[in-house]
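Morning run. Coffee first, then this:
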Amino acid sequence: MLMDKLLSSSAMSQQVVHVQPHRAHDAGQWSTGLCECYKDMGDCCFAMCCLPVFTCKVTSAVGACPCLPLLDCIGCVPPASLAMRASVRQRYGIQGSVCSDCIYGCCCYTLSWLQISRELKRRAATHASSSSSSSHRYTALTSLQGAHLV
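And here it is:
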């Protein structure tokens, strides 16, 4: 009896955590702030070096036409940036408005795309870890888990 307890307690102490628990997303909030680029330095450097390619990669990850961000250069309000922010907000139930999307798209264009990228990757990682035992997987974004959008 004592030996069984010792064996079971030693086996329990040797368990390895393979996936770190994620902080639950606040309902209706972005998982990272607009200026939290340091949380994904790879994407930050990629966006700073080649923003058009980065925005096309993010748009492709959302499931939209990868060339959509190229339309952002034709007007004073970037339509692709506006559409992607609105799409991600709607998909994940994040609070906001078209007005705030417009302000972020016009004034903080690169930061806005980086925030969208981080949100997609974090939500994909959270979804993949929470549904690992389920046969239904969110296939459109699981390839982004733990990877850069390169």
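The helical segments are 2-13, 41-49, 51-62, 79-92, 98-107, 109-130, 139-142. Good start to the day.
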